[in-house]
Amino acid sequence: MTNAHPAFRQAEKHFKNRATQALPALRDVPSTFCRPVLDFSRPDACEDDEVWRAGWWGRVYEPPVAGRRPRKAKDRVRGERPPLPNLEEEGVQVVALEDGRTGYVVAEGCVSIPRYYDAGAQEALLTASLAEFTRPPNPLSLDTHYALPENMFELYTSAPDTPVLPRHLELDEAERAARAEEAQRTAGTRPLIDTAPAFTMGIDEVKRRNASWTGDAMSLRASTKSVETLMREIRWANLGWVYQWSTKSYDFSTDTPIPFPPELAAQCREVVEIVPWDKVYASVKAEDTPDFGAWARDYEPDTGIVNFYQLNDTLMAHVDRSELDNSRPLVSISLGHAALFLLGSGDRADPPRPLILRSGDVLIMSGRGRQAYHGVPRILEDSLPAHLYPRENDSLTLAAVKRWISTARINVNARQVFPPGFKRPA
C-alpha cells in the first residue's frame, strides 16, 4: 500500500519516533523519503565523536512490520561509522571560504560551515543567549503568561528556587471571569493563518493585517513556578524586529526595532562575507540567482530568534516567509547537543537532505533556499561535546550555562527584514 504521507513527513516520522528506547536509524533509510545523512563536523576518531559514542550509528533501517513493535535496546550498540556519502554523487559542492575554512553547498543557496565557532566562542555565545538575550526588552515565549523577572538567568545562577507568579493572578475577579468566558466561547475556533509571503504582500498589507491584533491570551490555569522550571520552559527569545507568532508576521507599528545585538550582527556579517557566493551560484540559472554581489558590503541582520530546545523538542517542517527580502542570507548557529536537521525543497514530496548539525556549526540559507521546507525532528540525545562539560575552574555564570545546556540545544538564527535602501511608508 502506498504511503499517503509526503516524503518530508515520512522522514520526520522516522527520526522523531520514540516508540522504543532504540534510537532511530541514521543509515540505510529508504531513498524514497530520505537522502543519505551528512555529518561534516564529525571528528576523525570514533572515540572523539560524541554522536558515535551515544550510539546514533548503531542501527540500520528496518521497515516496520504491522502488528509487531520494534525491539527495545537498553544497551546501545555503537556500530561502525559509515563513510561520508559521495559528495559529488549527492550533488554537494565543496567551496573554499575566504578565511581558509571549507564550506559545503548542500542545496541551492544553502551553505554548511562545520566547526565555525571554536570552544571559547561557543561558550561566549551560549552565555549571551541565556544571560543577555533573555533580558528585556527582548520578548520571550513565556512573557504572555508570566511576570518574568528581568534578571532571570542571574536568579537561575544564584537563586533557582525563586518563585515566579503567573500574570492571571494580577487580574481582579471580574476580569478573570470575563477572560474565562471569552476563552470558553472561542475554544476550538482558532483560525488558520494565511501565510502568504510578506515579500508579495508588501509592508502596507502586513501592517493592515496586524492592526487588529491585540496580543495572545494569557493562560488562566498557569501556576506559580520556580525560575529553575521556567528557564527550562523558555522556547524562544526574539531579537530585533518583533515577530508575532500568532499572525506569522513582524510588528511594524513602531518606527525602529529593538536593537539587534551588535556583536552577534558582526559575527553574522563576517560569516556572510567569507562565502564565495559567485561559486555557490555558479550553476544556478540567472533568473533564479539573487543579487549577491553586495551581500559582503550591506548584509545587516536586524531580526532573529533564539530557539531553546529541550531533548524531546522538535520543530516541524516550515518555510520562513515573513521577511520583505526573501533572498538575503539567514544565518543559523547551532550550540549544545547536536540536532538532526532536515533540509528539503519547496515541495514536501521531495525527499529531504538530513544534516547532523553539531555545536559550533553554521548553516546559511539564501536565494531560493530560503523557500525550502526545513525542520528539526530530533535532538540527538547524549551528544553534548566534551568541552561543554563542567570544569572545576568554571565561573558561576559559566557553570550555570553548562548546567542548562547539559540537557538542551540552542539555535541562534539571524536575518534581514528589509532590503537595503528600502524606504518605509509614513
Strand content: 15-25%
Q: Would you identify the regions where 5 or more consecutive residues have pLDDT less than 50? A: none
Shape descriptor reads globular
CATH topology term of the domain at 88-132 and 230-415: Jelly Rolls
Major sheet summary line = 8 strands, antiparallel
Structural class: alpha+beta
**CATH-defined architecture of the domain at 88-132 and 230-415:** Sandwich
- Strand order, main sheet: write it out: 1-2-3-14-11-16-9-6
Counting H and I runs of at least 4 residues, what is the number of helices? 12
Q: Multimeric state of these chains?
A: single chain
Number of strands: 16
Radius of gyration: 22 Å
Assign the CATH superfamily of the domain at 88-132 and 230-415.
Alpha-ketoglutarate-dependent dioxygenase AlkB-like
How far apart lie the N and C ends? 58 Å
Binned, the helix content reads: 10-25%
CATH class of the domain at 88-132 and 230-415: Mainly Beta
What does the average pLDDT come to? Answer: 91
Summarize the structure.
The protein is of the alpha+beta class. The chain has helices at residues 7-16, 50-53, 119-132, 152-158, 173-185, 198-201, 203-210, 227-233, 262-273, 277-280, 295-298, 396-405; strands spanning 93-96, 102-107, 110-113, 163-164, 225-226, 236-240, 243-244, 249-250, 303-310, 315-318, 330-336, 339-343, 353-357, 362-365, 374-379, 408-415. The protein has a domain at 88-132 and 230-415: Jelly Rolls, CATH 2.60.120.590.
